[in-house]
Amino acid sequence: MCRQLKLLLDRKMNRKFSVLFFFAALIWGVSAYAGSDSALNRFFDNWDDWTISRLDTDYVTLPSQWWRVGLLGAWQNTNINVTDYSMMYGMFGNADSDRKMKLGLQGSFRGWGASYSFELGGSDRLFNFLYFGNSFGIEFVDNRTHSLNGNIDAYAWGLDADYGFVPNETPIQILKDDILHHCIFVDGYYVFNSRQFSLPAAMDQSYLQKKSAGSILLGAAYVYNDFVYSKNSDFFSISGVENITISEFTFGGGYGYNFAYRLMQNSHFLVHFSLLPMISVWNRFHVKTDEHSLAAGLNGSQKHGHYWIWDDFKNDHLQLVWFYRSSFTFSYKNFYIGVKAEIVRQYLTKDDGLDLETDVLNIHSFAGIRF
């Protein structure tokens, strides 16, 4: 038994390291071709000249190197709070993911970049793909978490004349692997002061910020949260809920600022912060249950032996998503080291008593080289 378990763990680790090896080989191969005297090389030379012509080079410029490769140490945390009075019972729930370190690799070519990190000894993983231009950009984040744990306090509604509800004697426990949380986040931005302020200088080091500057930002995002409940979990055995999916489009504006300081020749500090509050312009959630669920048949339909419930969060309340970025980077010649943080806080509420708050924190420490 121990030998079989060891072989299984070895296979999982080999798959994770195979992804990193393929990623590194791809970067090396494209780099070798782009570095040759090719049509692609000449195209990017012309592209660089055009890009620099649109910058105030006293504030922002491009490094002469096209490529960046670095190592990642990633910490990710997901926290979920739910309050629900929308049916014949009440519920307060909280779940929090493990704060274990992930290891990974990042690489980028000019503003195009990608990173992959995975949890040592666990199943959580994070994939990121982005294009960060100085005027506009887009980022795709795919995060899978198996380590959510917490508890749910369930209440029977209307059984107590004084308080209106009676608490369960024992909260429902949420154990690790009871829930698979799959989060997809796609966001885009537009920078008004793109001649003097550079978001990619702070977030992927594809530009160089020489003097301090700030800018008003516009942003739009799509947020998708999928919660799959294990059929072995206490929550599933009591509620019959198999899957909850929540998605929304948001739009908003904010501000970003880069504080740049030159320490000595060829060495710079850069500190960045930006805040983008966004308003939900469309949202939707659906619940998939089995036929014995407490919620089966409520505002939904039966299909393939399951009940599906669709609804939205449209009401008199503003549905908000707060998106915060910050980073600290030190660079010396072609080398750089730093840490960056991204926080996505999603808050949705309904008039019938359903409130959902999701906080996702991603922190990356990184060290890399331009070439």
Describe it.
This protein has about 375 residues and is of the alpha+beta class. About 15% of the residues lie in helices and about 55% in strands. It has four helices and 20 strands. Strands 2-4-5-6-7-11-13-14-15-18-19-20 form a twelve-stranded antiparallel beta barrel. Strands 1-12 form a two-stranded antiparallel ribbon. Strand 6 and strand 7 form a beta hairpin. The protein is elongated and about 60 Å long. It starts with a helix and ends with a strand. The N terminus is likely disordered.
The neighbouring-strand order within the major sheet is 2-4-5-6-7-11-13-14-15-18-19-20
How helical, in percent, are the residues?
A: 10-25%
For the residues shown, what is the average pLDDT?
76
**Which segments are poorly predicted (pLDDT under 50) over 5 or more consecutive residues?**
1-9, 156-166, 294-300, 303-307
SS summary, helix count? 4
Indicate the radius of gyration in whole angstroms: 24 Å
DSSP summary, beta strand count: 20
Structural class given helices, strands, pairing? alpha+beta
Give the N-to-C terminal Cα separation: 48 Å
Name the descriptors.
371 residues; alpha+beta; 12-stranded antiparallel beta barrel; two-stranded antiparallel ribbon; 20 strands
